[in-house]
Write a structure and sequence with these properties.
One of its GO terms (cellular component) is mitochondrial inner membrane. Keywords: Chaperone, Disulfide bond, Membrane, Metal-binding, Mitochondrion, Mitochondrion inner membrane, Protein transport, Translocation, Transport, Zinc. Residues 22-81 form the Tim10-like domain. It is found in: Mitochondrion inner membrane; Mitochondrion intermembrane space. The protein is mostly helical and 87 residues long. 70% of the residues lie in helices and 0% in strands. The chain has two helices and no strands. Helix 1 (16-47) runs antiparallel to helix 2.
Length: 87
Amino acid sequence: MDSFSSGSSSSSQPSPDVIMDQVQTQLAQAYAEQFLESVREKCFNKCITKPGTSLSGSESSCASRCVDRYIEATSIIMRTLLSSSTR
């Protein structure tokens, strides 16, 4: 049974609002996964100079700052885009 099925044997279709909510949820999940992968890749490449079984103090600090900056920058961009689209 797919996520759009109601579970009953009738042929009733989900409302457009239900479908839109499902699509928005799936898009948000895909965006979050893409965001995390991008942060992981960029910050690893920038901060981890000698991959091993643990991080050095400087690598840990760098990675933490990198993730914080990436989240902050993304937040600023999203707020700007959202405020532009509501004008």
